[in-house]
Design a protein that fits this description.
Its EC number is 2.1.1.-. The protein is α/β, with parallel strands linked by helices. The protein is built from eight helices and seven strands. The protein has a seven-stranded mixed beta sheet with strand order 3-2-1-4-5-7-6, sandwiched between helices. Bound molecules: S-adenosylmethionine (SAM).
Amino acid sequence: MGKIMHDYISDYIRNLIPEHDGILKELEEYAKENHVPIVHKEMAKFLEFMMQMKRPKRILELGTAIGYSATLMALNSNANITTVDRSEEMIQIAKENIKKFGLENRIEVLNGECIDVIRSLNEQYDIIFIDAGKGHYEDFFNESLRILKDDGIIIADNVLFRGMVATDELLKRRKITIVKRMRKYLDMVSNREDLTTTVIPMSDGIAITTRRQNNE
Ligand SMILES: C[S@@+](CC[C@H](N)C(=O)[O-])C[C@H]1O[C@@H](n2cnc3c(N)ncnc32)[C@H](O)[C@@H]1O
């Protein structure tokens, strides 16, 4: 669990969120037993909220793993979802899960490096969810802008990375490159005049970015 908030606040927020049942619970248990990283409970609730608020038609997800967050977004929207992962093992498990839940006509799973897949896409997306390759968010983001609708949203998970992004006191030597790049990502999305970004210190840190609309 990321140390980005006082434990009593994290625990309180987490306990407010009802447990899932059915297929999401099944995937949560599989992920836990097999040590597969999936979005935290608070991030799952945040995505659920975004589905209701934005009513997306098309979503791109970077980082499929076993298909948990893609399934969660599909169950909470009418969107068609494209999800990308470079691990063939994960892709196979995700495809099996998605088929088992009858979501194969809503969720398309692509095998490849995120950056190559983003460059190959030409549809326009309402939401792009970045949850892969923590050291490469800036590249993913820059390539994603081309395929983001004018009023689209880019959601990035793990941007505070267990608190290390916010303070050197928590920084582990082997994570220095990722942390420096994540700080650069947050500086960029926070300071570009054509964008507006908010960083939420929940889960492992969430950054949401959209284009600034001209209000004249
Ligand atoms: C945190 S997991 C995704 C979890 C998923 N979003 C969920 O909550 O159910 C990150 C996944 O991204 C994949 N990945 C990491 N770097 C990648 C890259 N550069 N291109 C494609 N996939 C990548 C990993 O194989 C891993 O399965």
